[in-house]
Predict the 3D structure of the following.
Amino acid sequence: MSHRYLLDTNIVSDLIRHPSGKVAERIQEHGEQAICTSIVVAAELRHGGAKSGPNGWQSGFDLLLSATDVLPLEGPADRRYAELRHDLARRGKPIGPNHMLIAAQALASDLAVVTANLREFSRVPRLAVEDWLA
């Protein structure tokens, strides 16, 4: 089965720091058309770039985001978010708010999340999660 992969912030950051590293190898293996990220991740990256100042990583983020499919946050991700937030709170296993939005978007679009943060994303039922840095 062919998957599409939603890259989390820590994966995109690693790709910028190591453009020929493990993440780049996996992207080449799966093809660029199989790769996307979330508007939530783009916002986190832009925040990080703003914090790093004018000589920081901002140009790398800009270049990568311009070449990557950045998915808007739209329905049915809102329904998945509500279900997910309720379920995780009921089970006493919440995750961070941005991670919850990313997970809901991935579930709604049938995407696998690529992240180094398995601790949080693995709490999400039925979410395909991979760590390309392991």
Notes: The two ends are 22 Å apart (CA to CA). Strands lie at 5-7, 35-38, 69-71, 112-114, 129-130.
